[in-house]
Amino acid sequence: QRRDPDQVEFQEAVFTVLDSLEPVLEQHPEYIKANLLAQLVEPERAIQFRVPWQSDDGQFHVNRGWRVQFNSAIGPYKGGLRLHPSVTLSVVKFLGFEQILKNSLTGLPIGGAKGGSDFDPKGKSDSEVMRFCQSFMTELQRHIGPDLDVPAGDIGVSGREIGYLFGAYKRLNGYQNGVLTGKGLTFGGSLARTEATGFGLLYYTNALVKAQGDTLTGKKIKVSGAGNVATYAIQKATELGAKVITCSDSDGYVYDPSGINYKIVQQIKEVERGRIKEYADRVATAQYHEGSVWDFDVDYDLALPCATQNEINQQQAGLIAKDGAKYLCEGANMPSDPQAIATYRKNGIVFGPAKAANAGGVAVSALEMSQNSERLSWSFETVDNRLHDIMEDIFEKSEAADKKYHLDKNYQAGANIAGFEKVAEAMLAQGLV
Ligand code: NDP
Questions:
Q1: Which CATH number fits domain 195-352: 3.40.50.720, 3.30.980.10, 3.40.50.300, 1.10.10.60?
Q2: How far is the CA of 364 from the centre of ligand 1 (A)?
């Protein structure tokens, strides 16, 4: 806190994790002796760089780029790139820190990292995005590699951006398809990567709901966001027999009591790159409202925030409880602020934290790395089945830690502990202390 008093998001993420590690530290004095936590919260490396680019009207612009390589105790650095005007070093560090434990929870050999830029892709032409990505990669390429650091997508970075980034990397270093994940299917991408985070969220949620002796069938779900995670969460929730009644973007939300059709969201957001408002123009039963979906008062059973960090505050968490939601699982990273999480607990809402619930994306990214190493492509079904097993395993590990440390259904602390134990053992064994 003394070192980075202005890094609010990073501190929020760190304190939430450190609080929950207390019972583990009591049982492992060797972690304290090795000052392991001080190492864990300090990135191995944080790179900041200039990204100059030219817009179509001939003007020159300069953005900031970052890559924070947080922890490589259990494998090469792995984590997405975010393009959004709200990106700062604090945001990248919070995401990179979360990524360490999330990646550990998947059971796959990947370390934690994150990167991005304060560039806003919204409203930019394809050629502007391409020139930005080429400039970004001109610097990033010297810090990454298939066995060193493997970036992927996040907010504002989907197939189009990964394609441009990959092309720029290839031009400088030759073809190395394991250097990025989330690639197109024609050049080393994995089937089911696009769907992975949303599908994985529902596999995790299904396991969590089942563990309470309940089922997803017939549940009414509020989803926020209308991007990659939200779209495929809506698809899988619908396939599992639930009904999603909302989705949103940063301007407003759509309410459709007859159930959101993910194909229309996909058409508007992925194909036309439009705004979610247009959903209500196409579907008679839908209404569009400006503002946050978390201020919208309607009865439902389960909340899946899939937009961005700190989208739910204490007051909105109170409304979630009042509206009757029994479960909340996070598709976005850190969408609930600490007071919101305390409110869920106070009201008996069973909470699935981001680092467990949304780990499906990075898990399938790691499977993409495996396929690239083998020079083989697995079928959609093979990848999807592995994703399903990984998400159930993540829930089981979190539940086991919850039981072992008598946390009273605190799956957040359970996930932190389960993710931390593996990283801590690896750090100690490697003598990084
Ligand atoms: P996208 O860029 O595809 O979509 C983001 C969505 O959230 C858009 O609908 C966007 O609306 C909305 N949004 C962004 N900022 C805000 C805001 N301040 N208020 C309200 N809505 C907002 O990103 P993803 O779906 O990939 O990512 C969503 C979340 O999931 C992020 O937290 C990300 O870190 C996390 N995540 C993503 C993974 C992945 O595989 N993609 C993996 C694990 C986590 P608008 O268009 O108006 O900006």
A1: 3.40.50.720
A2: 18
Q: What is the pLDDT of residues 134-170, one digit of tens each?
A: 999 999 999 999 999 999 999 999 999 999 999 999 9
At residue 244, φ and ψ (nearest 5 deg) are -90, 125
What is the ipTM metric for this complex? 0.97
At residue 117, the 3 state secondary structure works out as strand
Does residue 414's CB lie within 6 angstroms of at least one atom of ligand 1? Answer: no
Ligand 1 centroid distance, CA of 417 (Å): 26
Ligand 1 neighbour 306 (Cβ under 6 A): yes
**Identical fold, 8-181 and 195-352:** yes
Of 92, 94, 154, 313, the residue with max ligand 1 atoms within 8 A of its CB, to mutate for a pocket test, comes to 154
Residue 1: per-residue pLDDT = 57
* Catalytic residue (one of 78, 93, 114, 220): 114
Query: Annotated catalytic, 122?
Result: no
Q: Is 156 in the pocket of ligand 1 (CB under 6 A)?
A: yes
Encode pLDDT of 234-289 as tens digits. 999 999 999 999 999 999 999 999 999 999 999 999 999 999 999 999 999 999 99
Which uninterrupted H or E stretch holds 77?
A: strand 77-83
The token pair that represents 102 in the structure block: 């999330």
Q: Are 259 and 243 in contact (CB under 8 A)?
A: yes
Q: What is the CA radius of gyration of the chain?
A: 21
Average pLDDT of the residues in 69-93: 98
Residue with tokens 């790691």: 366
Q: Where are the domains of the chain?
A: 8-181, 195-352
* Domain 8-181, CATH class in plain words: alpha beta
